[in-house]
Amino acid sequence: MNKLERITDIALPVIGGSVVGLLTTKHAKADFEKYKQPPFSPPKEAFGIVWPILYTTMGIARTITKSSRKDTEANAYVYYSQLGLNYLWSVLYFKFKLRGTALIESYALFASVLLTTVAFYKTNKFAGLLLIPYVVWTAYATYLNAGFVALNNNKEEYAEDI
Predict the structure, then answer these.
(1) pLDDT for 162 beyond 70
(2) pTM (2 decimals)?
(3) Among residues 51, 140, 158, 161, which is most buried (max CB within 10 A)?
C-alpha cells in the first residue's frame, strides 16, 4: 500500500462526511432550534467537532486493516456499507425529513458499525479499538434520533413519514 492510497483511505470518509455536512447543515441547525430535544442532547456545535474526528479514525482504521496480511474482502464490504449508511442517515433525516425512516436506518447503521468494529478488531486489534468511539457515538445518535421522533412526532411539519 503506497502513501497516496493511505492518504486517500483516510481522506475519503472525511471528504464524504464534509460533503454530506454541507448538504444538510442548514437543515440541521433549523431542527435544533425549532424542535424539542431529548435529555442529554449535546450543543449543536458538538457535531462539527465530533464527526471529523470520527471520520478520520475510520479512515485510519481502514488503512491499518488494508495494510494487514489478514485483511479480507469482507472488511471492505462492511466498512463501505457502514460508511454509505452513515452518509445516507443525514440526508434522510435532515434533507428529506424522513425521520422514521432515518430511525430505522440508524439501527441498521449501528449494527453495521458493530460488524465493522468486530471485523477490524479480528484483523488488527488497534484498528478495531479505533472504532470504539464511533460505536458509542452511533449508539448515542440513535438515542437522539429516537428521542427527537418521540418528542416531536405530533408536529405535522416535523416529519413526512411518521
Answers:
(1) no
(2) 0.92
(3) 51
